[in-house]
Amino acid sequence: MLELSILGFLYEKPLHGYELKERIQGLSGHVRPVSDGALYPAITRLVKNGLVDSRTEPGASAAPRRTLSLTSEGRRELLSRLRTPKDAEITDGQRFFTLLAFLGHLPDRADQAAVLRRRQEFLNTPASFFYEDGTPVRAEREPDLFRRGMLRIARATGTEEKAWLAETLAVLESQGPSGGSGSDRP
Question: Does the pLDDT of residue 119 top 60, yes or no?
Fold first, then answer.
């Protein structure tokens, strides 16, 4: 997800490494902090693979700064990753939020809707943190106070997300096939 975040933020505009790290921290840092030991090797891989361009510019009052920008191949790669996310990017809540943060960059509303339908299908499959005889345990049947809390919070979050997905899919489908990022986002 780190590479997706890098590509997604650079799709919006060129950034210095520190600015990029701050944006990534804002998106997911409270859940999964981003270390320099993970970020800079990921940037190096993306540069090596021709997806990101790195150039040195004079610093305002300090040492030269490295500016990162997305190449045309990087744009294609980002759109491909958004169009066909891995299963874990659909089923893992934090990974899905990262995907969602950049889904508006896809120019075709049908592609956006297809990703949301995958998430919707996943959420509509009965699941639980706990099972009894192969059946998901519902909050009302869980005797443990804290596990019951987990189940109730997950259900409330899931209910709200399902409602948002249904509303957003209706908007996307009513607007026609082309879309893209910007002010026409649902």
Answer: yes
